[in-house]
Every structure is written in structure tokens, then in C-alpha cells.
Amino acid sequence: MSVLNPSPTGLQPITTHQSHEGPGNFITKYIFSTDHKIIAIQFLFTTLLMMIVGGALALAVRWQLAFPWESMPIVGPWLFAAEGGQISPEFYTMLFTMHATVMIFLVIIPILAGTFGNYLIPLMIGADDMAFPKLNMLSYWFMWPAIACFGMSFKYAGGPAAGWTSYPVLADLAQAAPGSGTAQTFWLLGVTFVGFSSMMGSINYMTTIINMRAPGMTFFRLPMTIWGLFITAILQAFALPVLTAGGFMQVADRLFGTCFFYPSGLVINNAAATVGGGQPLLWQHLFWFYSHPAVYIMLLPIMGMVSDMLSCMCRKPLFGYKPMVFSMSAIASLGFIVWGHHMFTSGMNPAVGMAFMVSTMMIALPSAIKTFNWTATIWGGKLEFNTVTLNCIAFLSMFIVGGLSGIFMAAVPVDVYFHDTYFIVAHFHYILFGATLFGVFAGIQFWFPKMFGRMMNEKLGKTHFVLTFIGANGTFFPMHFLGMQGMPRRYADPYLHGYLEHLLPMNQFMTLSAILMGAAQILLFINIFYSMFFGPKAGRNPWNATTLEWAAPSPPPHGNFDFVPMVYHGPNEYAVVNGDKDFLMQTEQECQPPRNITTSDTSV
Amino acid sequence: MGKGWCLFFLFWPVAAVVSCAAAPFIGWSFPYDNAQAASNLGIRIDHLFYLILAITAAVFIGTQAVLVYALWRSANNRDERAQHTHGNHKLELIWSIIPGAILLFLALYQMNLWADFRFKNHYPEAAVKDPLAEVTARQFEWRFRYPAIGKQLQPKPQPDDLYTVNELHVPFGKPVLIQLRSDDVQHSFFLPALRIKQDALPGLQIPVWFEANKPGVYDLVCAELCGWGHYKMKAHVIVEPEEEYQAYLKNLTQQQSYDGLGQIAANENGSESEAAEK
Ligand code: HEM
Ligand SMILES: [Cu+2]
Ligand SMILES: [Cu+2]
Questions:
Q1: Distances from the Cα of A289 to the Cαs of A91, A258, A337, A531, in angstroms?
Q2: Mind telling me which residue stretches traverse the membrane in this protein (chain A) (predicted)?
Q3: Nearest Cβ partner for B83 among A88, A269, A575
Q4: What is the DSSP string of A511-545?
Q5: Which residues of chain B lie closer than 8 angstroms to A314, CB-CB?
Q6: What is the spatial distance between Cα A136 and Cα A119, in angstroms, rounded to a whole number?
Q7: Which of A325, A555, B28, B238 could form a disulfide with B23 if both were Cys (CB 3.0 to 4.6 A apart)?
Q8: Rounded to an integer, what distance in angstroms lies between the CA atom of residue A231 and that of residue B231?
Q9: ipTM over 0.95
Q10: pLDDT value at position A71?
Q11: Which has more pLDDT, A597 or A516?
């Protein structure tokens, strides 16, 4: 039995793989680095920092809903001295707008594509770096002008006031609200910068995955993580230009009076707008044509990563590799024809609404298939309940809730009631927080040893998980009930309306849960920084996993592999008889699968 | 060891199911009397909601139960190795076709309801011929324009139109139609009790019909972010019997034709009130 071990013994040392110069001084090594691993780590720390900002904004929103018009402890008197410490309704609008903006554009999207995409793509396909290392570096550095623009918009110009969806006319005409002025222009510029950043990333990922796969790495031997990132990159490449174009049109409306998005004859703030001829619905179509696929951009990579992690933690091959790939592709392609489900009450033609309803129902199907496949992967496995596993299960458990509440909203007549109420807020938090962020926590814990050569602390990780899970359900589950009772979102003071008066205690409970959840994140940060320096050293393959990145040293050197990786079979070969191990790395040539093998997968 | 975690993951779906089951009894479900919609269409919407709730509840309980059981088995696996399988065609077909059929059924099942709700050729004829009022949303109030008694609503304001702010009166037991528009930014006409919601788009006039079946005072709120005062677009819809509604209109006519001099002109119908105005 000849086994190609990941150890360099007997393999040619690589000399041809140094496609670009190795590290120079500190600046070129850690700041303006073109090494995908360093860039990934830069993205990681930037997004974690932004998570603190976005979380603080969320807590401020929650504070207002639990204790309306009361001064926030500590920061209140300092931030709103003029209003006597109160959060003004203008400021409240800015708070939820920026919370959503930061979480979506500066946390979730960049942590998935920027951190995990960058780190894992070259390593998992056996390449020495990205196809365009300099473009890769640029995509990171475009985050900073975006951050600066967002920062300007909320600090120096009153704060954008139109929500993260930036619906005209509110977002389009400066006189529409206190926050529709310069702040909104900065906000749009910020979105454009993150858009450029993602665009550069997605071109790079597509090129890398198509062209730089190691010998033997066919498409159907790609790990699911790579499939998730690959499909996401394609989605980005097709959807993002539309948003960027729309953004430019809105900027033109604001700065040059082009009126793409507002009609004639408006009277705003008692002043008549002098020009017009546009149509606010146009923006909604352009916006959601990007932002609906964007919710999958925020989910597909996690679906891939969780598939790989679960399979490893269960010591079982992924149940139905090909169906998983096909359902992902189905989600992505259907994702382009469901954007109208955000617009059932918008005044667009109701017949079109029916078509969007059917396509939305269809897209629930591949999501359901994936859920069943993950559950089947766990079935009959040999599970170890470590932090990675726990976060993956949380992903699965909460994804089910978010998926099921989606069916209510796909049903148009029911959506009419739930649209723009807290039911929606519950739904997308179950997906974005419940599914995506738990997946991110699992991913950090799983790939940390590869990134930093040390293991993260299990006790801290589990405590963080338990508190976050309790906090998340306590915060987001009651939102379904708020929605049922008809509480609209983006209300600074819902208790003004008779039928909502009694909701205060429920909102206070949710705020307490949110505070618990926010506090729990401190443990994550302690864990990361402590383990980076003091965690136990990790070998090449601490999880006994099978994919290529575990064959490289931890952390991998510049250029990644100290041998030429050759791929012989699919990504998740666990539970095989292979000497005294139960797994077969993709670089290992031979295995004797057990006699009782039941397979529908030809890639073995 | 794994048992504790299985219980942990079991606890939360159980809590979710229990709180949902308790919700209707502790006032956590649809608003107002007995959570019953105050319109016939609303009642149909509620039925669709409960149908979906039943299906999703079954799926939720089923999937979470299987998940926890799979965890339990997997955690207590004493074998040397996990089961080696790459999938099972038959199983995967089953769990694609069944949810597919359910989703398709739901999609088809709701089409009629949606058509009755929003398709112009399904609107009740009487209501379309004689719209009740024009509703104009603006920052941060609701304005209503009724035609004079005995007249029909015209697209352009008429001299004898009746105006109110933040209070809409509606006769009950018959379908009515309003013309929805906005003066400035986008708003949304949301009547939770009737399960009605429609965005008001600047530049468009959107007809919305509803039929209230229970007299009462219902909140009308704005559901689309329209600026800093979004939360305080507070109005009421007063659903009352036809006679009271007519009396209200008459009263309104008198108030608005009052010239400030002496006694209020007591007019029987619109044309006379027009004369009084001159
Ligand atoms: C500590 C965790 C979080 C809390 C307590 C929280 C809380 C809230 C609240 C209260 C709102 C409602 C604002 C409103 O509509 O009135 C909101 C909106 C939103 N949140 Fe979060 N959130 C959290 C995490 C996240 C994460 C991780 C994301 C990821 C993308 C996210 C995305 C959004 C989005 C997109 C909105 C919609 C904002 C809008 O109305 O335009 N949130 N959040
Ligand atoms: Cu969507
Ligand atoms: Cu509003």
C-alpha cells in the first residue's frame, strides 16, 4: 500500500511554487501583504472589530425599545447631551440603519468572502496563492474607505435616515428628512466601496478556483466549502453590478438632480420639489435584485463550511455530496428570480407578485433538501460534542426556524400582514444571526489551528456558545410574537399605538437577552487573543480531517505547501478502513472501503 | 457527556413549541378581539396562516426531533467507526418530492385569495364604481378626502370635498375602496385588524379595497419607514353602521361649510352646501 503522506518525505521539494516574492520587512509582511493568509487574517480582525460596533448599535436600538426615551447608561449623557441624554427619533433611525449596514456590509459579507474565502480557497484546492495577489490586497484595502464613508455618514452629517434599504424618496431627496442630506451620500459611497471590494474578491475567487486547482482536483472533488464560496462568487459577480449601477443613479439624483427615482409633483416638508419624472419602484427592483441574492451570499459559504465541519465531527462522509452541490446551484439560480418577494405590498403588479410567490416557494425546496442531508450526515455518525460541533448544530437548528418562517412570507396574502413587522426581523435574524454567525463561530474554532498554529480553548468556547445560544433565542424568538401582534419594525416608540401598548415587558425581556448575548461575545474575544499566544500547539491535522489544507503545515508558510499536493478522491472520506485511522486524506492514494458500502456517489 | 448536550438542544424547540401553543391564550397572537380579523378577507388570510402554521409546526417538531435523536444516536455510538455511506437515492427522492408537493400545493392554494385581494378585475364592482375616499399619506399624518354627500370621488379635489386628518370613518358590512397616494415619501397603509397593508407610492394612485365586518375603532399605522416621525403616524379607522356613517358625513359637511357667522348652515344635501359656500 503506497500512501502519499502529507509529510514531505519522499516527495519533491517545491521550488517552482514561489509565484511571488516571499515576505520582506514587517510592512510588506503584515500590512501590505499579498499573501492570501495574511489578508484573510486582516479581514478577520477588521470584521471582528466591526462586529463590536454593529453589536453596540444593536444594543442601543434594543435599549430604546425596552426603556423608551430614557437616557442610556454611561454613554447616554455623553452622546446626547443636547437632548438631555435621550435618544432622539432621528438618532434612533440612524442607529438601526447603521446597525444593519455594519452587520451586513462590514461583518457578514467580508468575514465570509474576505476571511474564509481568502484563507481557504487556495489551501483547499491546493494552490499556492490567489490568482491575483495584488488585487486581493486591494480588495482588503477598499474596506477602509468604505468604513471611513460609513463613519463620516453617521458621525459628521447627522446619520443616514433611510434604513439599509435606502428607499427613495426618503433616501433620494435631501429635504425629505434630517438624515437624508450629506449623510446619505456618504452612505451610498460607502456601499459602493464595499461593492468594489467584494467585486475584486469574487473575480479573484472564481479565477482561482477555475484555474489553480491541484492535479486531480476535479470539480466534483471540491470540498463543499469551496462549492459554497465559488457559487457565492458567481452570485456576487452577476448581482453586484446592478446595485452599483443603482447606487450611482441614486448618487446622481442627489448630486446632479437626475430624478431617476422620484416622480413629479411632490410636496416635501411643505416645499414643492421642482423636478421629477422618475419612479421609486425602480429602485426597489434594482436594490432587491442584488440584495436578495445577497442573503444567499451571506449563507451559502456557511452552508458549505458546515457541511465539511459536520462531516468531520461525525466521522462520516457527507450524505449526498452531489445533491448538496446541485441544491446549492439551484438556490443560487432561483435566487435571481425571487427578489420580488420583498415587494408584495409595494404596489407592483399583483400578477407579478404571484410569479414571485411561486419561485419563492420553489427555493424553499433545495433548502429543505440540504437540511435533511445534514441531519442524515449526523445520523449514524460518531459525534464528539466540541465547540465546533455545538455551533454547527446551532446553525442547523436555527436555520430550520428561519427557513420555516420564510414559508409564511412566501405566501403572499400572509406576507401582506407580516411585511415590515417584527416577524420579518425575526426571520432574517434567525438566518443571519442564528445560521450564519453560529457557522462563523464554528469556522473560527475549526480553522484557528491552521491560521495560528494553536488550538482554541474548549471551555471558553463552550461557555461562549451556551450563552450566545440562549441569548439569541431569547432575543429573536419573541420577535415572531411581536410580529403576530402587528408591531411594525423601525418604530422608535411602538407603545404610542393602543394595540401595541402592552408589548413593553416582552421587549424588555428581549433586551435583557440581547445584553446577555452581547456580553457573551467578550468570551469569544478573550478566547481568540488568549489562544493566539498561549493555546496548545496544533499539528498539521488536529481534527483528523481530510481536505488539503490539513496537509499543509500549521500555519502554512508563504506559498502554502511543502510538497506538490495530488488529489485522488472526494473530500469527505471518513469511516473508512485505512490502517489504524478512520479517514483518508485527499492526498492519500488508497483505501479499502468497508464491504457494506452503500453509495450513490461516483467520485469515490 | 453527549446526553447533556442533546437535552440542551431538545430544550429550546420544546420551549418554542410550548410558547407558540400558549400564544393565543395569553394574547400573543393576532391583535384585537379574540385575534379575529375584522374583515372577511382577513379571516381567509388567517385561515391560510393557520394552515401554514400547522404544516410548519409538524415539520418543525419532526425535524428538531429527528435532529436531537440523530445527535443522541451519534453521541452514544459505541462502534469503532461511524457508518460509511455517501447517500441514499431513494431517501433523497422521498424528501425532495414530499416537501416539493407540499410547497406546490401551498402555492396553488393561495392564488385565489391573492387574486381576490389585489387583482383589479376581482374587486367588488360597487366599491370600484363609488370609491369611499382618497387617502393621502404625508410626513407624518394621514389625510382623508371624501366626496360630498351624493357625489362621487373625483381624481382631482373638488370644492365641496370633505377633509379629515387621522380619522377615517367607514361603513361596515359592505366593501369599500380607497384611493391611496402619498404627497412626499413612501408610506404604507397598515390596518392590522383587517390584515390590510399597501404601500403608498409617491406618483401613483393605488386602489385598495376592504370590507369591515365588525364595528369598532381600529388603529391605522404606517409600515414603511418614512422619516424620523415614522412611529407616530397614528390614525384611527372607525367602522360603524351605515346610518351612523351617513350622520357623520352630514356633520362633517356642516362643520366644513360653517362660514364663521351665526348659525351653522343646515343643509340637506351637497348641492345646497355648495351654494352656502358661495
Ligand atoms: C447582538 C445581536 C443583534 C441584535 C440585538 C439585533 C437587533 C436588531 C434590532 C432590534 C433590529 C430592528 C430595528 C428595527 O427594524 O426597528 C435589527 C435590525 C436588523 N438587523 Fe440586527 N441585531 C443583531 C445582530 C444582527 C446581525 C448579526 C445581523 C447580520 C447581518 C443583523 C442584521 C440586521 C438587519 C439587516 C436589520 C434590519 C434593519 C432595518 O430595519 O433596516 N443583526 N437588529
Ligand atoms: Cu429575500
Ligand atoms: Cu412611516
A1: 29, 22, 8, 42
A2: 38-63, 102-125, 137-157, 186-207, 219-239, 287-306, 318-339, 351-369, 390-412, 424-448, 460-481, 509-530
A3: A575
A4: HHHHHHHHHHHHHHHHHHHHHHHHSPB--S-TT--
A5: 74, 82
A6: 11
A7: B28
A8: 40
A9: no
A10: 82
A11: A516
pLDDT at B261: 67
A198: which 3 cell numbers?
A: 467584494
Check residues B80 and A165 and name the one with the higher pLDDT: A165
The residue of A86, A417, A487 whose CB has the most chain B CBs within 10 angstroms, and thus the best one to mutate to test that interface, is: A417
| Nearest CA owner, ligand 1 atom 32 | A100
Straight-line distance from the first to the last Cα atom of chain B, in angstroms, rounded to the nearest whole number: 89
B84–A593 C-beta distance less than 8 A: yes
pLDDT higher for B35 or A505?
A: A505
Strand partners, B39: B212
Domains of chain B: 3-76+94-120 (no CATH), 125-257 (2.60.40.420)
Alpha carbon of A315: minimum distance to chain B alpha carbons (Å): 6
DSSP-derived secondary structure for B80-98: SS---B---HHHHHHHHHH
The residues with which A268 forms a beta bridge, in sequence order, are A271
As to burial, measured by CB atoms within 10 angstroms (0-12 exposed, 13-18 middle, 19+ buried), residue B263 is exposed
**3-class secondary-structure state, position A482:** helix
The sheet with strand B167-171 has its strands ordered as B167-171, B235-240, B216-222, B187-191, B196-200
Residue A108 in contact with residue A432, Cβ under 8 Å?
yes
Query: Which ranges of chain B would DSSP assign to H, the alpha helix?
Result: 2-22, 40-75, 89-109, 111-118, 125-129, 242-257, 270-277
**pLDDT tens digits for range A241-253:** 999 999 999 999 9
Q: B21: Cβ–Cβ under 8 A, 6 or more apart, which residues?
A: none
What does the pLDDT read at residue A81?
Answer: 58
Overall residue count recorded for chain B in this entry: 278
Q: Decide which of A450 and A24 is more confident.
A: A450
pLDDT for B80 beyond 90: no
pLDDT confidence band for A588 (50 / 70 / 90): confident
Q: Is A156 exposed, middle or buried (0-12, 13-18, 19+ CB in 10 A)?
A: exposed
Whether the CB-CB separation of A438 and A106 falls below 8 Å is answered with no
**Ligand 1 pocket by Cβ (under 6 Å):** A 55, 58, 61-62, 96, 99-100, 103-104, 108, 163-164, 425, 428-429, 432-433, 437, 475, 489-490, 514, 517-518
Q: Which of A391, A402, A385, A383 is nearest to A520 (CA)?
A: A391
Location of C-alpha cell 404596489: A347
What is the per-residue pLDDT across B5-28, written as a single tens digit (0 to 9) for each? 999 999 999 999 999 999 989 989
Amino acid code (one letter) for B101: A
User: pLDDT tens for residues B237-277?
Assistant: 999 999 999 999 999 999 888 777 655 444 444 444 444 44
Q: Which residues contact A267 (CB under 8 A, 6 or more apart)?
A: A273, B138, B183, B184
Q: In the numeric block, which cell numbers belong to residue A129?
A: 496563492
A30-261+275-583: CATH number = 1.20.210.10
Residue-wise burial string across A53-71, b where 16 or more C-beta atoms lie within 10 A, e elsewhere: bbbebbbbbbbbbbbbeeb
